[in-house]
């Protein structure tokens, strides 16, 4: 499948990082037909298939080392060959329902109580949530649970753990189906992390990672992730509005920390060899997030890293904050600076990139710097409106 020769260079508002001057060649999408999905209950003519992308620009040789999907496949292959590691990944999809008012402004539509309160299930839009669930279940999606979330107007789908590639593909399918169903009813469903500047409630997309078949690697794997977490954040939270969730005074969300069944910190240990990565939202490219995060864990295993951070589950919030001496960047620009600094000077992320056999991190830095400048030019309100509809 041929694409315009800028498929990997488009910013979120559709401007091009470096447009070819002559537009020779093309980008090529290579379908993985095992990912073919339909959703007969919603739109019988619909089908989706996931692709890897390679650059094929004129006389230059084909390049597929900018594709996040290929990078994740490479990491998974190496994990299996070198460590016999088989990962399982699960996602929690949080979302809210918005609409345009008579002034064409976006306002919250789903206003029922969250926090697992039943009143959220009595709101008028809940019938569309149920409609979405029926469509997903009929399409074979591993929808394990649904409940209200947050303080007000939020819902969450809990997806069953699956192999990483299958889990990411299913996540994309769930996002698209949610968008499609609510659009048909004149509403906007969003997974964007900060739909309203004046609300404290945010929307996350927590990621569950397990390595149950190699428990002896548990500590080193976690140590590798925590060591690189300040740099991974630029991939996990790729827009400035994502960082409102990482503020001092909100537990230990702004420091590198982990805790057994502790939801106050970025990494929650659910049980042995099973963690929840909480510093992620739905704007992230999950192929790239998983490729980098799993690579960081594998480097920890290769280097037999020692866990430097204590379990926070027995600490108060004040003690967690006092004990934190490694901080997560507080803005997207700071996160990009952190990632670039580590990438250029310390070479740590180059090791991660080498494990992917990819140049995707370098390309991501260039692409996101460009995109950040475009969103800044738009202004906060216009950018927020765009991102709510897209995500």
UniProtKB/TrEMBL annotation:
SMART domains membership: Gln-synt_C
Domain of life of the organism encoding this protein: Eukaryota
Domain GS catalytic stretches: 68-391
Pfam family, one: Gln-synt_C
Organism field: Hirsutella rhossiliensis
Similarity remark: Belongs to the glutamine synthetase family.
GO molecular function (one): glutamine synthetase activity
SUPFAM superfamilies: Glutamine synthetase/guanido kinase
Sorted UniProt keywords: Ligase
Protein name per the record: Glutamine synthetase, catalytic domain-containing protein
């Amino acid at each position: 499948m041929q694409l315009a020769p800028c498929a990997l260079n488009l910013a979120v508002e559709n401007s091009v990082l470096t447009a070819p001057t002559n537009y020779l060649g093309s980008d090529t999408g290579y379908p993985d037909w095992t990912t073919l999905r339909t959703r007969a209950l919603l739109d019988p003519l619909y089908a989706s298939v996931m692709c890897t992308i390679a650059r094929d620009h004129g006389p230059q040789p084909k390049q597929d080392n900018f594709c996040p999907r290929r990078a994740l496949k490479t990491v998974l292959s190496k994990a299996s060959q070198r460590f016999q590691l088989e990962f399982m990944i699960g996602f929690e999809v949080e979302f809210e329902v918005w609409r345009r008012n008579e002034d064409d402004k976006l306002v919250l539509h789903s206003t029922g109580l969250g926090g697992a309160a039943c009143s959220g299930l009595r709101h008028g839009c809940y019938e569309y949530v149920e409609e979405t669930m029926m469509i997903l279940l009929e399409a074979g999606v591993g929808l394990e649970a649904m409940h209200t979330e947050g303080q007000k107007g939020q819902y969450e789908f809990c997806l069953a753990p699956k192999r990483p590639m299958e889990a990411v593909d299913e996540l994309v399918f769930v996002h698209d189906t949610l968008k499609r169903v609510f659009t048909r009813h004149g509403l906007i469903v969003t997974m964007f992390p900060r739909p309203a500047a004046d609300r404290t409630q945010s929307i996350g997309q927590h990621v569950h990672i397990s390595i149950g078949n190699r428990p002896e690697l548990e500590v080193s794997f976690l140590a590798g992730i925590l060591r690189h977490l300040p740099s991974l954040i630029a991939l996990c939270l790729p827009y400035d509005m994502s960082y409102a969730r990482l503020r001092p005074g909100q537990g230990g969300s702004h420091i590198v920390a982990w805790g057994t069944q502790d939801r106050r910190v970025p990494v929650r240990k659910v049980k042995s060899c099973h963690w929840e990565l909480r510093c992620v939202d739905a704007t992230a490219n999950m192929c790239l997030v998983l490729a980098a995060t799993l690579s960081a864990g594998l480097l920890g295993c290769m280097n037999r890293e020692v866990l430097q951070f204590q379990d926070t589950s027995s600490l108060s919030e004040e003690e967690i904050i006092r004990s934190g001496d490694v901080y997560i960047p507080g803005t997207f620009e700071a996160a990009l600076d952190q990632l670039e600094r580590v990438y250029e000077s310390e070479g740590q992320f180059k090791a991660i990139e080498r494990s992917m056999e990819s140049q995707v991190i370098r390309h991501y830095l260039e692409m996101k710097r460009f995109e950040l400048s475009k969103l800044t030019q738009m202004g906060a309100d216009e950018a927020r409106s765009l991102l709510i509809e897209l995500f």
